[in-house]
Amino acid sequence: MLPLFLLVPFVSLLILNMLRGRAARRIAFTLVSVVALGQIVAVLWPPARDLPATEPLSAFLALGLHSDSLSQVLLLSIGIVVMAAVAVGRATLSYDKHRVNFVSVLLLSLAAMNGTVLLSDMFSLYVFVEVTSVCSFTLVAFDRTRDSLEGAFKYLIVSVVATVLMLVSVGLLLLVAGGTSFDAVANALRNGGASPLARTAVAAFVCGLFVKGGVVPFHGWLPGAYSTAPPSASVLLAGIMTKVSGVYGLIRLTVSVFPPNAELNWVLLLAGAVSIAVGAFGALRQTDMKWLLSYSSISQVGYIVLGLGCGTPLGVAAAILHLFNHAIFKSLLFINAAAVEQRTGTTNMRLLGGLGSRMPTTSLTSTIAVLSTAGIPPFSGFWSKLVIVIALWQSQHYAYAAFAAMLSVVTLTYLLTMQRRVFFGKTAAHLLETREARLGLVLPEVALALVTTAVGVLFPWIVGTFLFPLGGIR
Amino acid sequence: MSLSFIGLLVLLPAAAAVAAFAVGRARGVAEALGVLATAANLALAIFAFGRSGTWTVPWAAPGLELSLRLYHTSAFVLLAAAAFSAAVALYSIRFLAAKRFRHLFYGFLLLSLAFVNGAVLADHLVVLLFCWEGLLGTLFGMIAIGSRRAFRTATKAFIIVGVADLCMLFGIALVGSQAGTLVMSRIHLPLDSMGALAMILLTIGAISKAGSMPFHSWIPNAAMDAPLPFMAFMPASLEKLLGIYFLSRITLDLFALRPESWASPLLMTVGAITILFAVMMALVQKDYKRLLSYHAISQVGYMVLGIGTAVPAGIVGGIFHMINNALYKSGLFFTAGSVEKEAGTTDLTRLGGLGRRMPVTFACFLVMAAAISGVPPLNGFFSKELVYDAALERSVYLYLAALLGSFFTAASFLKLGHAAFLGPRSPENDRVKEAPVSMLVPMIAIAATCVLFGVWNAFPLRQLVQPVLGGWRLPGHDFAGWPANQLLVLVTLVVLAGAVLNHVMGSRAFGSGLAAVDHIHYAPSLKGIYAKAERGAFDPYNWGTAAVRLFAVAAWKVDRAIDWVYDRLSPGASGWLGQQVRDAGDGSYPRYIAWSLVGALVVFIVLNRAG
Fold this sequence. Notes:
The complex is a heterodimer of chains A (474) and B (611). Chain A is mostly helical. Chain A contains 20 helices and no strands. Chain A has a domain of 214 residues. Helix content of chain A is 79%, strand content 0%. With 611 residues, chain B is mainly alpha-helical. Chain B is 74% helix and 2% strand. Chain B is built from 22 helices and two strands. In chain B, strand 1 and strand 2 form a beta hairpin. The longest helix of chain B has 45 residues.
């Protein structure tokens, strides 16, 4: 079954590019939607996991694919966000001929992300993270406007630092462990973890992932890249791509590779807390919706890293849960921003106001996403933040727990400010003619809002089926 | 007994009240409802008198049941309340004619009656408390409907009585936890530390309802602002009945007050202070209604004093005084209402010589003023003698205080009668005529009852009052007939003569009946105190509001500080931080790379710390 997660997008990509022309343009979006939908079904529908006749494929690929509940959660998130991105792309892409190119990059990203979360080898992880990153650069620069090219260029330049660090790290690990598979590295670190070489390798890899995930102070590229990218790319990037290329790696390594390490936890806690603060305060003074949401992403990644830094199974589970929730509500917020941009031509909050009466569904779903992000019950964000705080408390990081709880007030502040400046109040005169977003955007909005609400409302059920199994990864 | 007459006693007035609120200003309908419902209630109360029984409806939660119990004491208070309600309802027809709030007044009157009946019948303390608080609501409503200024007075009354009721609430909770039950007929608590606290709290509730000091200060304001029948109805009669009824329940049943208990001197002191201070204030008033209102406070003192003595004569005297006071005080307010309606004012400086024009009112006034002053053989004389007797048995000082109270009472009523009904008539009062019949009838009935209860005091004492204590508490006692202690009667007569003498000399010296007590009002040591008292310097409500204002100012300052933190400091600080972050992300990629490298350095150092 597992190889299909890589092969299906890849084969689809080949088919699409062999067809080219009108035929390809016609089927492009349908194709990628079906692939993404197939991925969601494959994760959620138990019989699909045991699809027969994949053994030969595994043998053929020989990549050492491995799947556990962490991978499953990420595969699900990837499927959902790609679906959302496809919907946004279909609704917003201006030129017909760009469709195939866009969908091609999308399919490649899908394959790369799936590979990242399924592989069990440091070097392969590095390679697929890089492929994902390259797809990201391409997506940011997709519109070829001045701003987006600049944003992509900076992303690329800062990523180079990560590339160097990770490559060096893989080399050092090969030296230390004599192999790069997770098991080999884990064994080597457990036995000879005190050696400066091994420590340097770990530090380098972690720094690389910090860059990819946009953790402060490695975050400089992130707001520019998210905000200048085309709307569909913003959804994909903010929703899942940087999480897969950065945060997933952190989770995977802390859980399956690195031995329990107080120093690493200390770094994670500090980086997480600083990210929360910088992201939140940065978002506070933004005048542009997309910039605000980008800073908000930094802040939310901070929560995930903070949960991870507990070093306890509950903290890890909370981090994964928050990653999933973040994928949902941040995608939703970027779709809302795309809808606003499409209807008004701007995301500058100084020029917006009172859109709630003109775009009721967008406004309502945005409110739900805002409340979920800020951690207000009964939405899903409340539970994951709560579990993060509980995990911090249980692992005796009282100051961090209090800090995380207090900073949600700032989260609520900047998001409600955005909500007020864009949707609430009296409609500005020049916006009176604005209409609700088109169906292609409204549908994913409603779907994601339903998901975030349902996960929140059904949380008691999720606890048993989702959270506790997550705690026992390994 | 699914729906017995006991339940009907509460439900009938309540239903009539709802109807009265509903009919609105339709001419005569609310009046008809009021008179008919109070008459029906009176008939029910007469029917209930001498019977006993219980009516229990399960209600809300287990253990909380609406249990009403009719027995002698409740039947007696029910009857009295019914009689006064009927009188007030009849009286108000003409008095309130053409007032916009007629239907509201009748609605509140009937609702109050329902609550009073409920409170008197209640055998469960929670039911009692519910009715008690309901009366607080109707009290507020009846004062507030008068005018805009009345609203302030209503608020004042609401706060004072509300605070006292809150004490009672805590008292009831305490009693419940101590006794393990809230059913009154099953509670018999000792006066240990918790029991004492509970008793004090309950007593506060009871005497504040009766209008005793220090919970009195809204009554003079209400006398001026509220519709006059309200004064005859609530502070003069129903609230006294209810408050003293509950006080007697507390001291007789719930806690069994003994003369040697510390609570007895406490109650007696409160009573004596109330008598003396309130009557001193009454003495110098220049308004008919305001003067009466201070007497409404002062007379409570006799009842509290009497019951506080905890000896049979005192308790019988206190309860007898309760019914007597309710009679002549509501009757006196009725005469004030007649004067107000016909002369257009109750300001004594503008009244005078009305006796010729309003002979019936004047005659009623004479009877009831004599009764309140304790002139034999009227009812007030007999109840006061009983209280004197008991007070003297406990302490000579209390007796002297009560006696002094009598002197001032007599003096102030001589002044009032002289100023309003005798003396030269001012030209503006030339067209004054006698009050309408519907107002005279209740007045005459009450005056006649005052005479009856005095001359034939065996009836009220043997039929109404003494059974409240029960024969086992009164072995060999019968207080009917002429007072036993002739010496005390003699002293009382001397004091009354002194009051007359004082009045004659005073009015000669100062030239008018109104100024007859000016030598007391402007006596060197009293002048300043009176001036302060008139400004409200001794009003506990004003102290309370001043303290609350002080607290409010402090709280406001704290609130400002907190607001500053929220409105200035935290947005300012977070805004500044946000601006820093925003400015830092200026798009310079060397800077981004520099951050990353510094960050990486930190991570390297930290992770190598252990090595």
